[in-house]
Amino acid sequence: MQGNPTLATEIGEMIVRIIEADQCGIFHCCGGESATRLELAQATAQVFGLDANLIQPSPPDPTDPASLTGIPVPQDTRLEFTCTASRLAYQPPRPVSEPVRAPAAVGDGPDLVAVWEGLGVMSV
To answer: Is the pTM value of this prediction over 0.85?
Structure first.
């Protein structure tokens, strides 16, 4: 599965820019790069100093109700960000090629849960 990992704070920043500039239309409020879930998981492991090679792909467990087995799920939800970046004069972080740092303590640093949740795509 391929998508645009995005921090919730970055989506908020883009929405604020849309409102402040009185823009209208379709905006792809998403991360500045695409990645698979595996690539994002491995980048996250590296941020925390863990061995990213230990994260390997595997087929979904059909007995797990969260596996979505039998439910059609798009494999590629990437969005093109070039037009949005230009209209908003904004380039969001690239969480896979330029990963965020690991927080030193709870409440310090970026919300890494939002990075994971950011695999979903949001359009305004």
So the answer is: no
